[in-house]
Design a protein that fits this description.
About 30% of the residues lie in helices and about 10% in strands. It has about 400 residues and is α+β, with helices and mostly antiparallel strands. It folds into 2 domains: about 240 residues, no CATH class; about 140 residues, Zinc/RING finger domain, C3HC4 (zinc finger) (Herpes Virus-1). The strands form 3 sheets. The chain has a 6-stranded mixed β-sheet with strand order 5-4-3-1-2-10. Helix 2 packs across helix 10 and helix 6 crosses helix 8. The protein is globular, with a radius of gyration of 22 Å. The chain starts with 13 loop residues before the first strand and ends with a strand.
Length: about 400
């Protein structure tokens, strides 16, 4: 059953913090959610397009702005886990384990309701330092300068430090230099509307990987030098000019051997053994997941690219075989791939209530979704239904 097949890693998933800019209120409201498409989700919250959460539609709180995004989740479930922990810090096992224990014999202080911007940023900082989430290749992207300043002020005061591999980007109207180390391809995009949420930016890499994988016969692993079998799981270097192909386990072992964290089971990145360029592990796995689980989807992408090339509408028709991934905005509307007729990786989950379905979602984390509606690459899920809009206080 095709509906039960494992799905490719989605092109984009994030958690976000909304802030109300509607007038007539002493304090703006805040809202935490997750989405695979921030521009469309923001339009829904603001009533520009159909959808959005009821909590963000009432009380004249519109318009809303997305003041920050936490990017880099490899699955919908991963984003939902982070979202829930951020929404419910008092109940999250990740945060409770990381908080300092009160001295023995003293009554623990009552847990205050965390409603303010400062509180949400403190909880975010702690979440990024927890053992579970600290291992993920995440990026925190700020679009509001005042929110970024609050974050930096807390970073200067708090004892703990966000892991170096988690990139913090000052975007939008943030004028000061961003905190943390800038990762490859983690440049400014200018605004939420420019967030790229499809596979268009890595199409060349996907095409290269698919072509190499279909002709494995006679090729050898660059590391162990053993000839490939057609069914082997192999990784392909994303660099355009590099033809390095390795066994998945060989490259993983090499990357982990050179990692500074001896307890890590999944690499973050490493240097290609052929071209020596730094390669993000999640990008390698995204390409592999599409090659092994999303062939129908890729063929639809390829047909669309060919049609555009034939019509002469595609910019830069001589696309190189290798990767051209970056965080730069896509200005050509035709680059957004409409794959509603293809068997893509996820299905729409409009009107999803995280609070009502959270246990079920966690229990089915390793199980594929079984919805029968025609799936699409670009999807929309609802924010969690919070008890109420969260006010600054």
């Amino acid at each position: 059953d095709a509906a039960m097949d494992p799905k490719p890693i989605p092109p984009y998933y994030c958690c976000y913090l909304l802030r109300s800019t509607g007038g007539g209120f002493q304090r703006p409201a805040l809202y935490i959610g997750s989405t695979p498409d921030p521009p469309r989700r923001l339009a829904q919250h603001n009533g520009v397009s159909k959808g959005g959460a009821k909590r963000t539609a009432r009380d004249g709180r519109r318009p809303w702005e997305m003041v920050l995004l936490v990017e880099g989740f490899a699955s919908r479930v991963g984003a939902l886990q982070f979202e829930w922990a951020w929404q419910h810090p008092a109940a999250s096992r990740h945060l409770n384990k990381s908080r300092k224990k009160p001295k023995e014999g003293r009554k623990p202080p009552a847990r205050r309701t965390r409603l303010s911007l400062q509180a949400h940023l403190e909880d975010l900082h702690l979440l990024l330092r927890t053992r579970y989430f600290a291992a993920w290749p995440l990026t925190v992207r700020f679009f509001a300068a005042d929110v970024h300043r609050v974050w930096k002020g807390w970073c200067d005061r708090v004892d703990g430090v966000v892991p170096r591999h988690i990139t913090v980007v000052g975007d939008g109207d943030c004028e000061e230099a961003p905190l943390g180390q800038q990762g490859a391809g983690k440049s400014k995009v200018g605004g939420v509307k420019n967030i790229q949420t499809d596979y268009a930016h890595i199409y060349g890499y996907l095409e290269k990987g698919m072509d190499l994988a279909e002709n494995l016969a006679g090729l050898h692993c660059h590391l162990c030098e053993i000839q490939f079998n057609q069914e082997d799981l192999v990784t392909v270097c994303p660099q355009a000019s590099c033809k390095c192909v390795t066994h998945l386990i060989c490259l993983s072992t090499k990357f982990l051997d050179r990692a500074s964290d001896e307890d890590r089971f999944v690499p973050l990145e490493g240097n290609c053994p052929a071209c020596n360029e730094t390669v993000p592990w999640q990008l390698l796995m995204q390409e592999l997941s599409i090659r092994t689980r999303g062939r129908v989807m890729f063929q639809a992408m390829r047909r669309k690219e060919k049609r555009k090339a034939q019509k002469g509408t595609k910019k830069g028709s001589n696309m190189p075989e290798g990767v051209q991934y970056s965080a730069a905005p896509v200005t050509d509307s035709e680059t957004v791939l409409d794959l509603s007729q293809a068997h893509a990786h996820v299905s729409d989950e409009d009107n999803l209530s995280l609070d009502d379905n959270w246990a079920e979602l966690l229990n089915s984390e390793s199980e594929p979704e079984t919805k029968t509606n025609p799936p699409r690459v670009e999807i929309v899920i609802e924010d969690s239904d919070l008890d109420d809009a969260i006010s600054l206080g």
